[in-house]
Amino acid sequence: MKTNRTPFVIRFFAATGCKGWLAIGFFSLLTFVLVPAAHLMLPADHALHVSDYAITLIGKVMCYAIVAVAMDLIWGFAGILSLGHGLFFALGGYAFGMYLMRSIGLDGVYKSHLTDFMVFLDWKEYPWYWTGTEHFLYAVFLVLVIPASLAFVFGYFAFRSRIKGVYFAIISQALTFAFMLLFFRNATGFGGNNGFTDFKRILGYSITAPEMRVTLFALSAFMLMFTLILGRYLMQSKFGRILTAIRDAEMRVMFLGYNPLWYKLFIWTVSAMLCAIAGALYVPQVGIINPSEMSTANSIEIAIWTAVGGRGTLVGPVIGAFLVNLSKSWFTVAFPEYWLFFLGLLFVVVTLLLPQGMVGLWQKLRHRSMR
Residue 111, class by beta-carbon neighbours within 10 Å (0-12 exposed, 13-18 middle, 19+ buried)? Predict the structure, then answer.
């Protein structure tokens, strides 16, 4: 007997709900219409003009927000704390950065088809793994495949060995640190300590042109919305219910006949790919990518964004990413020597007093006001 099954597209978009779509509609109006118009059409001395700095800063923070949501998918819903997500973010940035470096062409300092750092280090030709990186679509392919492949292989052996909790966090951190040391070496062909910088163009268009800045800003906003919609769909599906069950009682789930390995591995790989896409959008907006993006401190900050906003909420990590990074932008200018103290204090306060983050605090205040 046939049963009528709701088409995937309808189920995918229905998972967000009416309130969610209203919020997304407002966010779309803001990021696709109002902000670009204020940046491109209003003169610099106008009160409502959005500056180049503001466009770049908000675009960068939206990339961070994508990473925070990716972290929430594995930590908030699967119970997997990763201190190595900065690696996937950086790998995505490096993969797209290779295309950006090739796009410089003869406009570099040494007027060579090789990148400036390769000429300086006396390289005679591109290494084999740079083959094809002058093509945009191939660079996008690398952004998706390289971090996903690494995440799949690492996750398969880790989850098959039942490594979890603090042990998984330490191993993921060690993996990131190892890659950071590797990329610091000049012999690897990724620019060593300086990394990639001095980008000129994307698809033939100037990377510093106002139209390109707005395009990258809008792409970051679109990717953030897609990540939230995808996360909502996954977590409200049968897959999401099994995933949260694995988080809360993995042994019971195994007794029911489910293999946690493939559920964890799928969400872990998806999370890594989202981080890589965020890294690819981040690099042309900021204008540089170097091994410091793989530092353990950066990966710890990702966990802090998620905790501050509220784990297991999807929208909470977005709030946390904006709150922490906008505070960082202000603190590092006004009180640069106190920023790390503030960040540590914020994490301690949230952990002790607000275990459900800012979203949890809002929900508590809302319930009290309704009584």
Answer: exposed
Q: Is residue 360 part of a domain?
A: no
Beta bridge partners of 196: 289
Reference 320, options 309, 329, 331; nearest CA is 309
Asked if residue 339 belongs to a domain, the reply is: no
Report d(CA 70, CA 86) in Å as an integer.
11
Is the separation of the CB atoms in 275 and 92 below 8 Å?
yes
Residue 2: pLDDT over 60: no
CB-based contact 272:90 (threshold 8 Å)? no
Instruction: Look up tokens 């819903």; give the residue.
Output: 77
The residue range of the domain holding 285 is 50-307
Identify the sign of the CA torsion 259, 264, 265, 266. positive
Task: Please tell me the predicted confidence (pLDDT) of residue 4.
Answer: 64
Provide the number of structural domains found in the chain: 1
d(CA 153, CA 145): 12
Lowest-pLDDT choice from 76-90, 228-242, 271-285, 337-351:
337-351
* DSSP characters over 82-145: -S-HHHHHHHHHHHHHHHHHHTTGGGSTT--SS-HHHHHTT--S--GGGTTTTSHHHHHHHHHH
Question: Pseudo-torsion of CA 233, 234, 237, 242, nearest 10°?
Answer: -160
φ/ψ of residue 197, rounded to 5: -160, -175
Residue 238, class by beta-carbon neighbours within 10 Å (0-12 exposed, 13-18 middle, 19+ buried)?
A: exposed
pLDDT number for residue 349:
81
The Cα–Cα gap between 93 and 274 comes to: 12
**Residue 29 is assigned to a structural domain of this protein:** no
Beta strands in 143-246, from DSSP E residues, in sequence order: 196-197, 201-202, 205-206
Please give the model's pTM, rounded to 2 decimal places: 0.94
Tokens of 39: 């940046």
Q: Which residue has the tokens 């995937």?
A: 8
CA dist., res. 241 & res. 269, Å (int)? 18
pLDDT exceeds 60 at position 3: no
Instruction: Pick the closest to residue 163 from 80, 241, 244, 262 (CA basis).
Output: 80
Cβ atoms of 228 and 315 within 8 Å: the answer is yes
Higher pLDDT, 265 or 358: 265
Domain membership of residue 158 (yes or no) is yes
Confidence at 17, pLDDT banded by 50, 70, 90? confident
